[in-house]
Amino acid sequence: QVQLVESGGGLVQPGGSLRLSCAASGSIFNINSMGWYRQAPGKQREWVAVFTSGGSTNYADSVKGRFTISRGNAKNTVYLQMNSLKPEDTAVYYCNFVINHYNYWGQGTQVTVSS
Predict the structure, then answer these.
(1) 81-96 pLDDT, tens digit each
(2) Is 87 strand, coil or helix?
(3) DSSP 8-state symbol, 55
(4) Helices (H), the chain
């Protein structure tokens, strides 16, 4: 019943910036956390960032200082601001909502960092 839709992916040059967004719809009650994951070709999906219900944030070491996760005013949206992008950031990015302790996933949006 809950659906997540990501947007904002695309092709950017190294050192550039991109902002991803994710909106949830459906029957939403208690949101435990919101987060972002990514998966590069031939690699396993890895955690990138999280925004907890208490308002705290945390980041993977590989993106710390470059990426920022935030919540929208509607409280059913989450954003990922990506700055100083590197080629190794190239991946499909997925948003994740934990609602009533159950994981919901978006369909993914492609981010390619290349000259």
Answers:
(1) 999 999 999 999 999 9
(2) helix
(3) S
(4) none
